[in-house]
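Sequence in, structure out.
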Amino acid sequence: MLPRELIDLMRDLGVFPVVIGTVNNSGEQHITFITWIYPPDERKLRLAISSGAVSAKNIRETGRLAVQIFAPDKALTCYGTAREVLEKIEGIPFDVSVFEMGIERVENALFPGSTITGIIPFAHTGNVHKMTELDAKILTALKSKGE
């Protein structure tokens, strides 16, 4: 299960950078960085991914997903099964799908004698206003899907 303080932090910050890992039916692994993720509760994560991305295709194929979360004093890897719950978020200028992951296991990824001092530093580049509007639309879809 996700710790309550981590759920609160992820919800408060809105966009929250994480690293996800997927695998296809041939066993080919894929790792990528995303920021559209929301924890509806301690046993689930919802994430939005460009519909045509390798990660989205892999989740549709196998459902296998790992999410690595870095936060103050935490480096957690969540393993579970995900499924597509929304094929396309309306009002977005490109296809973005929503997936929901049931967390089956959470592991501490810190090695002894280490800690994490913050979240992954992240900033939008380019048209910050448009990206902020896009983030808001996608986060609204993540929060409302399935509730």
